[in-house]
Design a protein that fits this description.
It is a single chain. Helix content is 76%, strand content 0%. With 80 residues, it is mainly alpha-helical. The protein has a domain of 53 residues. α2 crosses α3 and α3 packs antiparallel against α4. The protein is elongated, with a radius of gyration of 13 Å. The chain starts with 7 loop residues before the first helix and ends with a helix.
Length: 80
């Protein structure tokens, strides 16, 4: 079963330009973006079998990723 890509641009393709602009101009957004990207990468490595982790670790990472995505989306909407 193929793994889904949850990159922020994949999640919000209509906001591609805004995401890029905010990464370049807003340090808070850029920091949250980097944290989201790291959490997404860790989840992907665990789900693909490249890294071992227990279910609790995977669940924690998924919750962190969701919380960061919500924060980033809120910032994107405010910037619109």
């Amino acid at each position: 079963m193929p793994l889904e890509n949850h990159s922020l641009v994949q999640e919000f393709p209509e906001m591609r330009e805004r995401i890029h602009a905010m990464k370049m101009s807003d340090t808070h957004f850029a920091r949250l973006f980097d944290e989201y990207d790291a959490a997404e990468h860790a989840v992907h490595r665990i789900e693909s079998g490249a890294e071992a982790a227990d279910d609790a670790r995977l669940e924690t990472l998924k919750k962190q990723r969701l919380q960061l995505k919500d924060q980033l989306f809120s910032l994107l909407k405010k910037a619109a």
